[in-house]
Specification:
The chain has 13 helices and 2 strands; from the N terminus they run αββαααααααααααα. Strands 1-2 form a two-stranded antiparallel ribbon. The chain has about 400 residues and is mostly helical. It has helices at about 20-40, 55-60, 65-80, 90-115, 125-135, 155-175, 180-195, 215-230, 235-265, 270-295, 300-305, 310-335, 355-390, and strands at about 45, 50-55.
């Protein structure tokens, strides 16, 4: 009688399972951070005699945005890593179908509320604010970045779209010389970060510029390069799965340690930004290790990292990210749920308002994101794709 087959199942080189969990986790933690800024509800869960303290990771939840950009670099470069680079026009159209319908709706609604605000008195400045958002350059100007009347979290879309435009020229070079290109991107980012940005008395306007993010994207692209090659090594699958599982666990541990270190480094906002700059490369390297290792791991691990629930949450995560902070601010201003304090119930520690408000913010953002994804984003993407086919 032959022995049963125990070798791990093959890994698809065009799909990274760990990306599903990473996307949902990072968007959720970033959302928790922004909601916590409004509620000041201590993120500590007590289950019987067990206490789960999430405070360090919520307090530094803004750090997880870097891992969202890392994942973007990984996934966007994956077709090139697989030797199936898309035509530049098709690539840009797919990116447009994915982000523009939901993004335009977000801007339209937020613009309407900004105009209806009783304190609205500078239409020219708001028009400039909207214009920079439409061109995805709003992270370059103070009036449309830190002082925007729309939504502060949308700066991420500016960095992303700027990288989208760079990738078709960068990806073929990266595929031919991955280590050299990775080193060049990392060198540019570290130079811009420590020789330019960190020397400024106020780093506010430069901490989240694309040059400061190039090493994050580079780590994602290099992880995709190695992922494709290792995923195709069927003859060493058992060894790769074992090492991948270990690497994924170490990467996850490293991410949590780096974010915790950032949370425990006290100081003013400038000191926190400098800490973020100092830890950015290491955080993205740990995230890349989790993404690479987890996606190469044993099949049961990969099923835990990518399942139907996570894929659903990943599908609505884009809209959740765009809307969660704006909704949290509006719900608090509208006194939903009602609170007793004259203003700022978070500062008085008013319970159970803090808990109800936090739960409502998550539920409202998730519900709205689901509706937008199902009835706006997906139909609009299909319609845009259909028009493209009819035009051929």
């Amino acid at each position: 009688m032959s022995k049963p087959e125990i070798s791990p199942s093959p890994v698809p080189p065009n799909y990274a399972a760990a990306g599903d969990l990473l996307r949902v986790f990072c968007v959720f933690m970033t959302g928790w951070y922004h909601i916590w800024q409004q509620s000041w509800l201590m993120p500590v869960l007590r289950l019987g005699g067990l206490t789960l303290d999430f405070y360090p990771w919520v307090r530094a939840g803004y750090m997880f945005v870097d891992l969202m950009l890392l994942l973007s670099g990984f996934l966007l470069y994956l077709p090139w890593a697989n030797g199936n680079p898309p035509a530049t026009g098709d690539y840009l159209r797919r990116r447009a179908r994915r982000i523009l319908p939901g993004y335009w709706l977000c801007l339209a609604v937020m613009l309407a509320f900004a105009v209806a605000d009783p304190g609205f008195d500078r239409p020219g400045l708001l028009a400039k604010d909207l214009g920079t958002h439409l061109l995805f350059i709003h992270n370059l100007f103070r009036f449309s970045y830190t002082q925007t009347r729309l939504s502060g979290v949308l700066w991420t879309l500016a960095v992303e779209v700027q990288f989208y435009l760079l990738l078709p020229a960068l990806a073929p070079v990266f595929r031919r010389r991955p280590l050299l290109c990775w080193a060049a991107m990392t060198g540019v980012a570290l130079s811009f970060r420590f020789l330019w940005t960190a020397q400024m008395p106020d780093t506010t306007m430069f901490v989240n510029r694309l040059p400061n993010m190039l090493d994050v994207y580079a780590n994602g692209m290099l992880a995709a390069h190695f992922y494709v090659r290792l995923a195709r090594r069927g003859n060493r699958r058992a060894l790769i799965a074992a090492l991948g599982t270990l690497l994924g666990a170490l990467g996850a541990w490293g991410v949590l340690r780096v974010v915790r270190a950032q949370a425990l480094s006290y100081g003013d906002y400038e000191a926190l930004r400098l800490g973020q700059l100092e830890r950015r490369w290491l955080l993205s390297a740990c995230g890349a290790a989790f993404l690479l290792g987890g996606s190469l791991s044993f099949a049961p691990v990969r099923r835990a990292l990518s399942n139907r629930a996570l894929r659903f949450l990943g599908g609505v995560s884009f809209s959740f990210y765009m809307w969660h902070q704006w909704l949290a601010v509006k719900l608090k201003a509208w006194r939903i749920p009602p609170y007793r304090a004259f203003a700022d119930p978070n500062q008085t520690g008013e319970m159970p308002w803090q808990l109800y408000y936090t739960l409502l913010c998550f539920a409202a953002a998730l519900l709205l994101a689901t509706l937008i994804h199902q009835f706006i984003e997906k139909p609009a993407a299909r319609r845009m794709a259909g028009r493209r086919k009819q035009g051929k």
